[in-house]
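To illustrate the input format used throughout this study, we show a single complete record. The first block contains the structure-token representation of the backbone; no residue identities are included at this stage. The design step must infer an amino acid for every position from geometry alone.
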């Protein structure tokens, strides 16, 4: 559901008192609310719902730390395990991206609970009619199969094999009772699928197919579909990518470098990001791009107080960011420990609750730690295809002291030109840690990408392994709006670094000192193109 708001926000979001009245009436004291909003974004006292509130915060429109999926779903499963009448309620701001990501993560964890609801109140009249029709048709098919079996060898109709019958039962609504029974008593630990006896290739296929099944189920229950468009419940590409990561971890085909399994006793090898190539068209994008171009021109020439330095030698650049190291390390430690979920004597207040205070989310949770831009003296490469011109921007790490004003040629700006570095040593990354790549054109953001390097590097890590190219089309980029509408794809060049042991990845700005000016500009542009979701995304 959306955020249970009070005051003015209650007019356009879920009114808090109505939400409370609904839950009290339907579920009594057997519901628990899971809130994914950071306190810097939205908050309310846990006493609103009698203390039955658990927080697992991460920023709007972003992917969470991978370990957060494990912690949150562990408590969700533990609450459901209390009995068949126990219910969980999940919410973020709009009740779509973050809520959908965690709801799907829980379904992936429960595994056998992936099935459509059976209660009539969960459907509208048309959907319930279709559901009943499908169930009746299945009953007719079952009767036909029984008749075939009674005919035996004297009939020309081939009997149904046990394997076929088993497959039908797994997909049929009649097997729902078995799935519901499994759902009523979910495990509180990470799901064991006894997968060591199954070939790794089959586990990988199962992990991928399970994600698609869960996403389809969530979309069917969360979104209103039209004949013209099938809407996605979890629509942000990075959040969908996170569900694939999570499913692979549950099916034991995830990279062993992840610091989540109890056996993770040593630090994972480092990785290096050497360059980012951004391919963009020079025309197109419709009215949105036209409006953003005008807004960019006004911003570049107006004293808005936003620095135009430290962004690179050209208009296109990227920033790298990640969650606070100490927070992620604490999350991973708790997941590895695998301590059971326990509540205090009142039965609702969580013991040893990591997010009981606002220590981790009272300020911005993601901080920049590095940037890449065009090296001095380089220009984008121009190529052509059947549609038109494509410019390729090759972005490399550049020392802060070498960066110049945006869009200014070194000769025209009066600055001394700095030659490209002879060697590109790349940026050190923790291979098991998520990081964000945020794309900019001048001061205007074009989209972002969340990745975990070890999922995209060859296994096992090898000292002399060649560099790996990861190419993401525009459809795999989050919020490619404004100039982002001109994106073709983004290509990352990464590799394992098995020699660097002591060197730490660049540290981000301390949370108390964090000051990034770009979101304010993006917010102005979000309003300019009439896209409220862009404004919300830009604020993060």
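Output of the design step:
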């Amino acid at each position: 559901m959306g955020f249970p708001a009070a005051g003015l926000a209650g007019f356009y979001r879920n009114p808090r008192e109505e939400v409370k009245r609904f839950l009290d009436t339907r579920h009594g004291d057997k519901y628990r609310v899971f809130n994914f909003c950071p306190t810097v974004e939205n908050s309310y006292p846990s006493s609103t719902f009698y203390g039955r509130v658990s927080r697992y915060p991460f920023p709007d429109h972003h992917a969470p730390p991978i370990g957060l999926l494990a912690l949150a779903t562990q408590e969700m499963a533990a609450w459901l395990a209390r009995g068949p009448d126990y219910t969980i309620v999940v919410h973020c701001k709009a009740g779509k991206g973050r809520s959908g990501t965690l709801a799907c993560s829980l379904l992936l964890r429960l595994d056998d609970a992936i099935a459509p609801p059976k209660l009539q109140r969960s459907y509208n009249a048309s959907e319930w009619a279709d559901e009943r029709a499908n169930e009746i048709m299945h009953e007719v098919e079952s009767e036909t199969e029984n008749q075939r079996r009674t005919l035996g060898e004297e009939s020309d109709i081939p009997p149904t094999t046990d394997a076929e019958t088993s497959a039908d039962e797994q997909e049929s609504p009649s097997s729902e009772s078995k799935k519901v029974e499994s759902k009523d008593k979910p495990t509180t630990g990470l799901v064991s699928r006894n997968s060591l006896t199954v070939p790794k290739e089959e586990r990988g296929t199962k992990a991928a197919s399970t994600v698609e099944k869960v996403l389809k189920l969530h979309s069917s229950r969360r979104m209103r579909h039209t004949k013209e468009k099938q809407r996605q419940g979890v629509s942000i590409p990075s959040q969908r990518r996170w569900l694939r990561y999570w499913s692979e971890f549950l099916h034991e085909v995830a990279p062993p470098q992840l610091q989540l399994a109890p056996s993770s006793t040593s630090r994972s090898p480092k990785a290096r990001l050497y360059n980012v190539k951004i391919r963009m068209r020079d025309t197109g994008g419709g009215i949105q791009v036209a409006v953003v171009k005008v807004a960019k021109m006004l911003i570049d020439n107006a004293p808005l107080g936003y620095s135009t330095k430290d962004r690179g030698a050209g208009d296109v650049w990227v920033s790298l960011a990640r969650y606070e190291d100490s927070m992620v390390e604490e999350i991973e430690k708790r997941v590895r420990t695998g301590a059971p979920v326990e509540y205090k004597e009142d039965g609702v207040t969580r013991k040893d609750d990591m997010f009981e205070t606002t220590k981790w989310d009272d300020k911005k949770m993601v901080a920049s730690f590095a940037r890449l831009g065009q090296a001095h003296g380089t220009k984008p490469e121009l190529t052509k295809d059947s549609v038109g011109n494509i410019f390729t921007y090759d972005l490399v790490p550049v020392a802060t002291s070498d960066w110049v004003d945006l869009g200014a040629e070194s000769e025209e700006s009066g600055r001394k030109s700095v030659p490209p570095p002879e060697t590109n040593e790349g940026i050190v990354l923790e291979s098991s840690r998520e990081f964000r790549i945020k794309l900019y054109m001048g001061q205007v953001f074009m989209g972002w990408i969340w990745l975990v390097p070890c999922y995209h590097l060859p296994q096992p890590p090898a000292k002399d392994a060649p560099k790996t190219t990861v190419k993401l089309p525009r459809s795999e980029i989050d919020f490619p709006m404004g100039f982002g509408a001109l994106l073709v794809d983004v290509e990352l060049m990464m590799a394992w670094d098995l020699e660097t042991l002591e060197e730490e990845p660049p540290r981000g700005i301390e949370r108390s000192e964090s000051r990034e000016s770009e979101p304010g500009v993006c917010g102005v542009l979000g309003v300019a193109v009439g896209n409220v979701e862009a404004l919300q995304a830009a604020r993060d």
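Structural context for interpreting the output: Confidence is low (pLDDT under 50) at residues 153-188, 304-313, 403-421, 509-540. The chain is about 30% helix and 15% strand.
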